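pinned: reference chain
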Amino acid sequence: MQITKELVNYLEALGRIELTDEQRASSEKDLQDILSYIDTLNELDTSNVEPLSHSFPVTNVFREDEVRPSTDRELILENAPEKTDACFMVPKTVE
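pinned: its structure tokens
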């Protein structure tokens, strides 16, 4: 694929950004360099390489869920500046 001025202008409009002529030329060159590098990578023989989702082993580090007693509600509500019906009272934020 060849990066053209029209494609850079399209990407500029798509991204809702404004580039100077110098930035457009630089972006065109950078995008073409990226595509050239990808073409180089496509030449590699990966037929014997196992696909990976991560480059290192990922294991679940979460603890098991277990039911255990919580702090007493009344004890927590003692610190509330305002409370009503065993709940914290907070200022209204949405009309």
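why pinned: DSSP finds three helices and two strands in the chain. Helices lie at 5-14, 21-42, 73-77.
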